[in-house]
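so im writing up the methods section and need the Initiation-control protein YabA record in one place, dumping it here so i stop losing it
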Amino acid sequence: MEQTNLLEEFMTLSKQAEELSAKVAGLKDAVTVVLEQNAELRMNNGRLRERIEQLTTEAEASEPETVAPSAETGMSKSRQNLEKIYMEGYHVCSKFYGQHLEPGESCAFCTDIIYGDRGR
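--- predicted struct ---
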């Protein structure tokens, strides 16, 4: 091999190594962000589960369990529980479940689940 070809090959490999290193660094940053989001979602999920358990316990303690919709609101107990969670500032829809609502924000998906077609 000529020295020129050897130098060109070395430069090409060096450039590819730098590009690969930059890609690995970018992936590392992306994985870090995803892991942080995952940890935050796990914590929020845990808090939501605790709140649901608390609401369920309170509801069971305050009134006998019924399967029929409440005469006052026309909603089943499960929809009433979803409404309480929603009113506390959390999404109950499948699209954004567990995410915080901004003050004054409303969600059409959540309200449809809570107040939508009662024939479901």
